[in-house]
Structures
1.
Amino acid sequence: MGKLDQHAKLIFSEETGSITHQACSFIIPPETPLNEVRADGRLLVGDKAALAHLAAPWCLADEDEIVIELKLGGDKLDRRRFDRALLRRQAREVERREHKDKESKWAAEMPLWLIAPHLPRWLSRARDLTIVAQGVYRVGPYPFDFLWIVANKLPLVPELIPFLLARTDNRLVEFGKWVIDHRELEWLTRMIEVLPMTIPQIDEIKKYFPETDDPERLKRRELIAHIFLEHVPSLKQALKDEGEAQGLSQGLSQGLSQGLRPLVHQFERRLGRPLSPQEHQTLLSRFDTLGPEQLGDVILDLSASELALWLEERDLP
């Protein structure tokens, strides 16, 4: 899950500023000196009021810092991972209390947002869950704000794209089809490369890729293709082999057609008319099976009407 995890963090880092109009920023924090306990990220809230018009959970950010835990497709959602998420939140809270400027003592409780594809069954039995918005649940009882954000239930709106990356199965395909209209091809390519998607799921999303005649977009797509060829040698070799095979086949076909010109002329002279495309194909096929000498005999032995019937008959040599 390393690539997917890094990709999700990167998208949070790239998208948070623009989505929140610089009201929030996302950073990948340094290691907390507590036996290598480190959260996936911290959401630094600079302007809470600016978040009020955005879809939840953005509008629910009440503190200036929030610990983010990402549980993406393929990650386990058992009690052990749950407890470690709480530990990382607590570690950051302790760290902040100990290092906060003494002149402005920090007395708040560190919030925790856990982003996952779904709610595990055990959680509803072990904790109180309150729906606060579509796809957003408050977990309790805790002295701090703990939100469980269910990506598969979140609405498809542009400001939630970083959260929607945690979707899985058909919900992930649904997101892939939708996001095509909201992000460039380069973004989609990165998403497909790292998300845990099956080949049928990728094929389903590819059906919705828009055609374009925009020179700038075509240039970028060409660049992406070159990057893939450079980093996937097997694909480059497969395309090379396919091109060589097609070139050889076309060359043989064209060469054979050129060689048949005198024979075609004799057939057309005998019939008193040009050969149809289908008759050309029949003659080419029978040249392979009978050879030029027998075809020459056919011209000499058959009348014009018999020759026409011979060309129409698919099953005869």
2.
Amino acid sequence: MARLATRSMLKSLALILIISALLAGTAGCTGASGKTGVTVFTGGTGGTYFPLGSKYAELLNQFSDNIDASAATSGASVTNCKAIGTGECQAALVQNDVSYYARKGINMFDAPIPELQGIACWYPETIQFVVKADSNIMSLEDMAGKNVAVGAPGSGAAVGCEQVLQAAGVWDSITRFDLNFGEAASALKLGQVDVGFLVAGAPTSAIEELAVSSEVRIVEVPDNILTALGAAGYPFYVRQILPAGTYGMTTDVSTVAVQAMLCVSSELSDDVVYEMTKILFEHLDELRTVHTKANDITLNSALDGMSLIVHPGAIAYFEEAGVTVSADLKG
């Protein structure tokens, strides 16, 4: 009897695995309903990607008769780029610097991901070097010899921190701590590190929470560093100004930013991606109800900082809407 029960259980497990494999294979394909499955990878539930990506999937379902969309939490940019390559998802929110590395097959990517293509850049994700308000660190150069929390190992943030501090000439002289910003905030309060680093849309709730118990400020990233980053082959950085009042600071602070962007799989048809792009820009008001960062999404700025070849379906929409797509973005 035990042997029969075991055989029955194995047959049931095999059936479950077969069904799961079949279901996984339908994403991005036309199902029995005639709709194309589109899974949108977002980020953690506490971040910005999750509410925006979830609402976008909802809008795709609401306004398309051809798309069956769903949103999923994920490990954000690096995970999302890799998931596009493996077919685990067909659309994702990522940082444009990370998508650049994925396209090239460098840094945290062992090989290029040719399936990765762009739809639009959404909003700035700000480079933020955080220090206590009474710190004697007034510039990037002042970080020489200091303890700096550079980001989690292998993360896009850690790579960005290295690029900026290399451009400032201090990367090799800092003592590096591989901490995410939650860990860095605690270390900063305890005096274990002098600087915490993160890349996120500003104002960032994690810094606002830190500022409640410890006055903080953001260290400036000046024009010469932005120029040096471009010359070093990092075209995705853009200028950003944090206005006075951010985190309680009394003056504007110049820094730089990468961009959050929506990318898709090249395996999706032109018609589907055209519709995805059209729904995005025709329903921005609905997207803006879930997060203020959606206010930064505009048709005119959609290709600013674009680090990928743009999907032909998105190109068709842009050109129809009067937006010029440069030759280098057409592949």
3.
Amino acid sequence: MKKWIAFLCAAAVMTGALAGCGAQSQQSSENGTTEQAATDASGDLSGLSDKFGAAVKQNEFEGVAYAAQNGEKLFESESGQGYNADTVYHIASLSKQFTAAAVLLLEEEGRLSVDDTLDKYFPDYSGGDTVRLHHLLCMRSGIADYTDAMLEGAYVPESIGVTADNSADENRAAMETWILENTTPAPDLNFTYSNTNYFLLAEVIEKVSGESYEDYINEKIISPLGMNSTGFGDTWNKTDLTVASGMGETKYAFVTYPAAAYGSGDMMSTAKDLTIWANEFINGKNKVLSDLIITKMTANYENAGYGYGVMLDENHGIVHHAGNLPPFTTYLSVDRETGFVLVLLDNAEDTSEKDVMQQMNKDYYAAKSA
């Protein structure tokens, strides 16, 4: 799940676009359809539909690409399998921003504080008194990533007691035991991306709310925003929706093993629903999250280019994140000023999403500054 983040860091160096790490066409192409883009005061976006279509075609991107501005569709491409913006994908690490928002909602309710130390929730965790929830949220806890242990060899989660035959609760218990017995916090030394942070945060959400982490997010975020095509892999029950199947010969543990991506990458959604969520970050458009929560999520802690569950490109005013839950790769970005949202969802483990993401971002930045 971490190699996609490594790519984003490389992209930041190569393009300067990412921090931390015809205009009126109704034609359909073999990769999808385009619509006339809206014009924003910060730049003429009317030519983006053609440019995005060219980027999809040139990079042979077979996933779903979807762009919108202030909720209005600018561009959509269908996948090679006929999937579209209404198709459900595993969204991998895009899940982290929902977990972070849930923690802050609980803080707003007065039920926890991001300054709480971890021993409050895990009394037997050695060093838990040195690390705060804040450190987990912004990836500065120093706690080792449990997925590294699962990845030793070739996706062997059994090494930490996680099996395909276990229930989600059994796998969560095994993962928690392994984390508490085999990791030690080293907070605030540096930024270290670790899925363990968000596994533990999901556990905290359950302990504090008294309900499942999935139910709490459903109640406080998904349902109020009308994200009717969004849910969680382990409890998915929306049988009337089309769900993208993973492409490739290898079956990966993070998708097929219950709770293997709990809290850090276990959600499922569509491009349209993710656009609804991204609109929460547009200045003045938030409906569920308070201004204070948005401020905390999008703060650049220690100038690492990472907030709470989101990456930051302050040069362009962009909040973004990517995900890699093989074979699924995902990307979501939103320009908080202009309301421009870009979603990429792919169900095949290849490099085309990285290339098309770079090109579409370049095209947008050029149009924005024109």
